[in-house]
Amino acid sequence: MSHTDNADVAVIGGGVIGLAVAWRLAQRGASVTLFERGALGDGASSVAAGMLAPVSEAEYGVSGRHALELGLAAARRWPGFAHELGQAAGRPVSLRRSGTLMLARDRDEAEALEREHRFRDSLGLVTRRLRSSQARALEPALAPNLRLALEIPDDHSVDPREVLAALRQAAATAGVRVREGTAVSGLWLARAEDRVQGVELGDGERVVADQVVVASGAWTGALEGIPEALRVPVRPLKGQTLRLRDPAGPGLLGRVVRYPGGYLVPRDDGRYVLGATMEERGHDVTPTAGGMYDLLRDAHEHVPGVSELVIEEIAVGLRPGTADNLPAIGRAALAGLVWAVGHHRSGILLTPLTADLVTAAVAGEAPDDLARACAPARFERVPA
Ligand code: FAD
Ligand code: GLY
Predict the structure, then answer these.
(1) Is the pLDDT score of 40 beyond 90?
(2) What is the pTM assigned to this prediction?
(3) What is the atom index within ligand 2 of the atom nearest the CA of 275?
(4) Mean of pLDDT values over 27-31
(5) Cystine design at 347: which of 85, 105, 318, 343 (Cβ 3.0–4.6 Å)?
(6) 3-class DSSP state for residue 51?
(7) Which domains does the chain have, with CATH numbers?
(8) Residue from 106, 325, 287, 145 nearest 274 by CA
């Protein structure tokens, strides 16, 4: 086997998570090589809508509580992260502070939304209950037959493609060696299998690295060399989206709107992301007529003017989900292996936090409460 490269840290995967981790590590002086089997952003990251929505997406239960804590901590980091990333990349990264409206059309949906309102109230989250007329005063394009709305003033958005482009530039400027078109076949373990000593590439090349960060999204299960007992199971959750543009320019919607089964996320330039299906179909990324029909029907019922928009693109991505839908971030019980996977529906939101948690893990710092909430150890199976 040939060794043609070496690094302090090898990062597997060039989505937002791998890129942000690589950038932060390089900023702190590490030599970093990032491997992306296709082009940077080829995975879920360039399909994502970019909602930074911990309050809209708050869920019940213990995992929901942890997800909320992680999401709020990440949302607090976004203004500083966007600013610093923009400076490092020499191009602006805009945080669109629009707030979000959650919508209900009929009585059942309105009752469900009332429950969601009470739940968020009980957690001390800022929300405002709006009658249909109040919601339409804020967003005149909403359908007149809405029953109820919930305003979430602090849930904002970014454009993930803008973030990816900035991360690519910032990582390069910080000295990250990016190897696109280079698939990692698996981890390269020491003979005693007690530590990672690098990665093996598809063509048999081996790259020496003190630590390996796995950020390979929904394809993580294909990596070889990870002891079975230490694997984090990651499953793909297919999401179909439409990219729409208003020929009349911006203004149809100012806020993100969410409703059962979908959402519309406005950009500043009159473009919209209409999302998204949630499907268990393995690694299939084929767009379907049924998926498009469902998205357009629901969007039209909430915002009739959507029918006037131009379809620019159909984009399909695979959310990387774990069994409890929380990410796995941090050190494994195998020296040199660090996980950064399983960001499911919130990987854009969680990017700045994940980069900080991984940087701390690589530096050998003791985990804090946030790190404990997403510790990979919860998936490890100790052999009997
Ligand atoms: P990915 O972006 O999938 O990147 C993984 C990369 O690893 C890929 O580029 C892949 O090619 C590469 N790779 C895999 N295996 C290998 C290998 N062996 N060797 C080399 N490279 C490899 N999140 C939000 O916060 N807000 C949203 O509004 C939002 N909307 C979404 C809408 C949709 C439709 C979808 C699908 C997702 C959405 N998400 C959202 C979730 C978000 O996109 C993901 O959580 C996030 O992009 C995960 O980033 P990642 O870097 O872990 O994975
Ligand atoms: N967070 C939006 C989605 O996953 O579709």
Answers:
(1) yes
(2) 0.97
(3) 5
(4) 97
(5) 343
(6) strand
(7) 3-48+161-233+323-379 (3.50.50.60), 100-153 (no CATH), 235-321 (3.30.9.10)
(8) 287
